[in-house]
Amino acid sequence: MVVLKKLDQDTKAEIKELISEVIEIPVDKFTDTCKFVEDLGVDSMMALEIVAAIEKKYKIRFQDEEIPKIQELSNIFEFMEQAIKKHG
Amino acid sequence: MKLKDKIAVVTGGTRGIGKAIVQTLARQGACVLFTYLNSDAKAQELEASLTKENLKAKGFKVDVKDFEQVNAFKEQILDKYRTVNILVNNAGIIRDKALAMMSPEEWAEVIDTNLTGVFNVTKCFAVTFMKQRQGNIINISSLSGIIGISRQTNYSASKGGMIAFSKALAKEVATFNVRVNVVAPGFITTDMTSNLKEDYLKHVIPQIPLARFGTSEEVASVVLFLATDKSDYITGQVIRVDGGLGMS
Prior knowledge:
The complex is a heterodimer of chains A (88) and B (248).
Chain A: H1 9-23, H2 46-58, H3 73-87
Helix pairs in contact in A: 1-2
Chain B: E1 7-10, H1 16-27, E2 31-36, H2 40-52, E3 56-61, H3 67-81, E4 86-89, H4 104-132, E5 135-140, H5 144-147, H6 153-173, E6 178-185, H7 198-204, H8 216-227, E7 238-241
Parallel strand pairs in B: 1-2, 1-4, 2-3, 4-5, 5-6, 6-7
Helix pairs in contact in B: 1-8, 3-4, 4-6
């Protein structure tokens, strides 16, 4: 369990690695703006798996309303940044 | 203590079948968080009586028709209890009328409470269940939703819809280790059936093979079975508790 203070490049790379494991697509095969469902053929429910993995590792909580809005990696970074700001 | 340390949410828990479900789950060790709409006094009474038995139960005033209220309730529960393991969608109303006499309001109120209410509550808790890879949803439908009962087009539609909803959801969330099942009571002795006229009873009871109305406890004991790990291989099922009335 890691306590996140900010989202630097190393942490972002770590998160991308974590997601790569969940969606079973190598890190060099997707960018921050590739759409999980449309571009990568990932099941839409996978967003939940991704959220569960991140919440567990970084002790952060996504709002339920944010989950349907997760279309690409950049959305995840966005929501995580908001969560960090909110909880200081 | 089949449900020790489990957190259960029960909607419509102050009267009738809901109350029996709250009592039954609490007596098996669950911490039961129940909702109610109007019966403030009955909610306090139920809380007090279970606390006296050294059991854990708490009532929350929530209108299941209102998504925002339900969402706020969910946030409140998760903040305090961190997790939920069991959800029983029991809150339901009747507005019986022949279709020709039924107002759009009488139709909407029943659909909004009995069906949309189930959507509201289940949606709010489903994500929690899926994230933690454990969840158990038990929806209280009715024989009316399976065979249809005269003067209950609204109620039958809402309870039938609840069955289809439950089956679809069961398929969707099975991979997340979340089970969804339905209990369909027949005629049960509660406030909901207390106003049935003598004539109607004389007509209905002979059609019930077990020749009597059921009790709320008899329905609650099936809910308990579905709530425990004894039913771990059961999902997407509808179990009738109807004295044999609806058997095909």
